Amino acid sequence: AGDIDRIEVIKGGAAATLEPLAEHLADYEQHLALNFGAGVQACWRGPRLYDTDATRDLVKKWVAWFKRHREILESDIVHVRRADGRDLDAWLHVNPRAKERALAMVFNPRDVEASRTFDFPLYYAGLRAKAHVRERDGDAREIELDARQQARLEVTLPARGFTWFVFEVR
Questions:
Q1: E strands of 27-159, at which residues?
Q2: Secondary structure of the chain: what % helix, strand, coil (to 5)?
Q3: pLDDT tens digits for 86-134?
């Protein structure tokens, strides 16, 4: 029986599937958000992208999000913190010629709430001294950049949560 359990762990078993999608909406949303947030334009394969109206709406939401931020998401990417699964992780898309100069994706791979201060290197986005930042689709606020053109932000995320920040010049 020990070998069978080991084989199941290697394969991933029931814990490694998102099927049925409607019963795993939070995991499916995290999957979509992190793939699109990384700028991944995949050829999605499988029997379907959704199995209910709720999963169809979720897919539509993230496709629309990707289209809204497409220019910056298809730009260069900077790994802000190397992903290790033990703390919040982040990457930053940058483009000094785009309206949205940078977009940071931050995610919490852990099963507990976590906080971390990030220094986002906006030098690569062509931002100097100040920037406007929006978390998700919230209101923009002006922030000061440090001498290295970095934006320091404290981020707290729930277990398995994620967020994004858009940086612009106004």
A1: 76-81, 89-94, 100-107, 114-121, 130-135, 141-144, 150-157
A2: 30, 30, 40
A3: 999 999 999 999 999 999 999 999 999 999 999 999 999 999 999 999 9
Distance CA 13, CA 128 (A): 49
Which residues are registered as beta bridge partners of 105?
91, 164
- Residue pair 106/162 in contact (Cβ under 8 Å)? The answer is yes
Whole-model pTM: value is 0.88
First-last CA distance in the chain: 64
Cβ atoms 160, 30 nearer than 8 A: yes
Question: SS3 sequence, 63-93?
Answer: HHHHHHCHHHHCCEEEEEECCCCCCCEEEEE
